[in-house]
Amino acid sequence: MENKFKQICIHPSSSIRQVMQTINQGALGLAILVEPDTELFIGLITDGDIRRALLGGFGLETQVDQMTRPTPVTAPADANAEQLASMFNEKIRVIPLLNKTGQLVDLALLDRRTRLPVAAPALAEKELLYVTECILTGWISSAGKFVTRFEEMFAAFCHAKYAVATSNGTTALHLALLAVGIGPGDEVIVPTLTFIATANAVTYCGARPVFVDSESETWNLDPLAVEKAITPRTKAIIPVHLYGHPANMAPILALAATHGLKIIEDAAEAHGASYQGRPVGALGDVGIFSFYGNKIVTTGEGGMLVTNNQALADRARLLRDHGMQPDRRYWHSVLGYNYRLTNLQAAVGVAQMESIETILNDRRRMADAYTRHLSGIPGLTTPPNAQWAANVYWLYSIIIDPDLFGAGRDELIAHLGKDGIDSRPFFPCVHTQPIYSTGQRLPIAEHLSANGLSLPSFTYISDDNIQRIAMTIRDCC
């Protein structure tokens, strides 16, 4: 059998639990069932088969050979492309190719998952177990033990006293701004190189986002540009820890202290990143995180606000739940919002946090492998990792110099795509977006935006796939 399939092969005596672990090691959503001694091909087990078995009453320790599985459609190893194409349909998207003795030599694939995605969630047994508990007990809405537990775990993770779970990262940012008192007529300084939600949350408050340029070293907002942008109307600064690398917080915090400004950290992409040995999120007045499906920690959708200020946490909790007084039900003293996280989502978050060190170690392994394989390519800049920072590489992102690399960013994206490798261009600068177009010239951020792309960065990506990506990039160069 080809070595590339060894890690996703199992025997009939394996348990459903072991099958789930095996499926999680690959990127195809399946495991290959083989005879223990001869390695003769028996069949395929997909994540859908596992779901149906569990819903049918089987337990995690049930052996695979007790499960009902569809009979696989196979083809000889020498089948041509036309023959294989005629065999695919909506239900048949994976065709094992067997040699004359019945051993697997390859897989013919017609499935979106055969591409290497930029991001994908790493979900396993505990997520399923905790969500199942929510369903069996009926605690599926915004009340339930997992919400409180998730908040406590995440606060401790960020070295913060308080955490407030929300429906997504944008609502967490909106609550953070409202909690520190941002309102109509105020100005809030934000980097132009960020996802547009950073600016939108400011606008939700009736305030005006003021866009500043980036540092070429860290790709985050430039403290010197921040200082020049401060006016009598400035009330807050939102440093964004872009793509998992912390912003240079010391000069930003110093500016805030001098001018009496609030600091709201947008750490949506930086779970576990640290600045001078301290986790991001609670370095300023308040910080926020996103748990969208592509984030380092995910709940599908979800967010979190963290702070060491009890008054800010209490204010955020009040606004999160329709402005309802905590000591008087259905009594509303202020205009509030429905920004609550469900217990179902929090259950996934708790399971994710129980594996957070493994997840972060996998991120570092991924980044080390990319940097090793991409070293020496002319015109290619790998992600920053300043001496005072710990980058968590939410997305492993690179900058292309088209003159030295020999191809442009968009040309490289197209070249990767032809090889089944997804990639993503950097965010467009917010000051150039139609809704916020200011006519400013912010050259460093504009250069990064025009020449940056992010590579597949999901937690379980294999070193072999990273090497494949690097080889495709070198081929384009």
Description:
There is one protein chain. The protein is 35% helix and 17% strand. The chain has helices spanning 16-25, 47-55, 81-87, 125-137, 145-157, 169-179, 197-204, 223-229, 249-259, 310-320, 343-354, 356-374, 402-405, 409-418, 443-451, 463-476, and strands at 9-10, 30-34, 41-46, 75-76, 94-98, 104-109, 162-166, 187-191, 208-212, 234-237, 262-266, 274-275, 278-279, 286-290, 303-307, 380-381, 389-390, 396-400, 424-425, 452-455. It has 3 domains: 3-114, CBS-domain (Roll); 125-354, Type I PLP-dependent aspartate aminotransferase-like (Major domain) (Aspartate Aminotransferase, domain 2), CATH 3.40.640; 356-476, Aspartate Aminotransferase, domain 1, CATH 3.90.1150.10. The strands form 5 sheets. A 7-stranded mixed beta sheet has the order 7-15-14-11-10-8-9, with helices on both faces. It is α/β, with parallel strands linked by helices and 477 residues long. β4, α3 (81-87) and β5 (94-98) form a beta-alpha-beta unit. It starts with 8 loop residues before the first strand and ends with a helix.
